[in-house]
Amino acid sequence: MTISISDHPNVALRDEIRAEALRLGFDACGFASASDAWPNGGWLREFVAEGFHGAMGWMEETLDRRAHPTAMWTDAKTAVVLGVNYGPAHDPLLALEDGSRAAISVYAQGDDYHEVIKKRLKALARWMHGRFGGEVKVFVDTAPLMEKPLAQRAGLGWQGKHTNLVSRQFGSWLFLGSVLTTLDLPADPPERDHCGTCRACLDICPTGAFPAPHRLDARRCISYLTIELSGPIPVEFRQALGNRIYGCDDCLAVCPWNKFASLSAEMAFHARETLKGPSLAELAGLDDPAFRALFSKSPVKRIGRDRFVRNVLYAIGNSGDAALMAAVEPRLTDPSPVVRGAAAWAAWRLAPKRLESLAVASAEVAPAILDEWRAALA
After folding, report:
1. What CA–CA distance (Å, rounded) separates 376 from 301?
2. 306-318 pLDDT per residue, tens
3. What angle do CA 149, 155, 160 make, to 5 degrees?
4. Does the model's pTM come out above 0.70?
5. Considering 7, 64, 111, 141, which one is annotated as catalytic?
6. Torsion sign over Cα 287, 292, 293, 299
7. Where exactly are the structural domains of the chain?
8. What is the DSSP secondary structure assignment for residue 172, as one 8-state letter?
9. Which residues on neighbouring strands pair with residue 78, listed in sequence order?
């Protein structure tokens, strides 16, 4: 005889955990089996086999651990999946209209969500262990756990055609975290796909990073290019960056389900005034201490000053504002080769004749940077 969810002996326990999660500040809480069959592991292997992960070698290195939740922890029975709304106050696409100012992904305009969510996850896990026993482990993004498929199983939303989680209540704006436990808790009904025939997220992508619905080629994704890639961004994608200097919100922001989203209640995720369309000219002049100070507590700090200024210079090159050459020229002699290369490209885009005169007096010797100059002046 099949036992219904309502007959499960731990229904009351599950409901008490959900109430505590909401009390701690989570906006969504769902439960999924951690031990059921897991077809997503096969999808991930295909993703890596096709090279879609690009330079993210850690995805290949941790492939076996990502293949199934119990590969992370064999004793896990239940995944408690938590979501925190980080809905912005304004349409992120508006930031793309002023080419002299920077567009920073919504999730990175406030405090680092890893730190905010991890504290709450630990608090919930401690409470669970003290209240009900059982062993617990917490995970938030950086661990090799496929949280978006888990979130769909737990009823928080579904993976849209852009591969991100979409919620009927919060649109595309949910940070995720999980608590795995040895407690046997009843699962919530999984969420079904509500995308229908819509393909807005696929069509808006500036670099064509979606070869098909539900498939992402990270090598073409602006978030990957501006955050994960450490060297020069391939020339074929630079103009498509526009003024996006950290991440890209286009496929998230265009989702029709965002009409049901609301402003995040978490003040730590509200955009800092200094990160609401900051000046590209000012950002290009950041040295390492100034970069660290500006992005204290922000996820942006993890890419480091050189990679960040590289992105800023590409954006300046796309601005069409020749006055920004004043911010570019000092970077042509920057200590960082990747910055110097980006500066050469930006100078070529804004003032090719000026770049030609600078090349005559240049003492540049790095082969990769000389290649940038030669390509620009060819």
Report:
1. 30
2. 999 999 999 999 9
3. 50
4. yes
5. 141
6. positive
7. 5-278, 279-378
8. T
9. 33, 181
